[in-house]
Specification:
Layout lengths: L6 E10 L7 E9 L2 E6 L8 E4 L3 E10 L2 E8 L4 E7 L5 H31 L9
Antiparallel strand pairs: 1-2, 1-7, 2-3, 3-4, 5-6, 6-7
Length: 131
């Protein structure tokens, strides 16, 4: 049984479109333990776009200009997605970066545990045995 991911933050962000004009479009964003969900603000019934942490590489390019924070989410494929938000309170880029680090740390711990368990189940390698 799968439980919905815990919501860390919910609010508005602006995302730069990938089209020729590269317009800024408002998105309702939901940051969860699994990633960032982007919903259209116009309400249309389209499904939310999801940027999952396992596909993210980093949060980059922070610039502060005229009361706005500009930042880039870099995906593992190299694709860059530009965002901006107001500087009020804790900036979205910091929340996303911290959540991404937390996710990657949990993955590393789980990988280490799995490696430890698999070597424990294999038994002795013979390296520490006396002849």
């Amino acid at each position: 049984m799968s439980f919905p991911a815990k919501v860390i933050r919910d609010g508005l962000l602006e995302k730069r479109s990938s089209g020729l004009l590269q317009l800024w479009k408002k998105k309702r964003c939901v940051l969860t333990e699994e990633g960032l969900r982007l919903h259209n603000c116009r309400g249309g019934g389209s499904k939310a776009k999801e940027l999952r942490f396992e596909r993210m590489a980093t949060v980059d390019c922070v610039e502060y200009k005229r009361g706005l924070v500009y930042f880039t989410v870099v995906m593992a494929t190299g694709k860059e997605i530009d965002f901006r938000c107001t500087q009020d309170g804790t900036a979205w880029n910091a929340e996303i970066a911290l959540s991404l680090v937390r996710h990657k740390n949990l993955q590393a711990v789980q990988t280490g545990r799995n490696r430890h368990l698999s070597t424990a189940h294999l038994g002795s390698t013979g390296e520490d045995e006396e002849l």
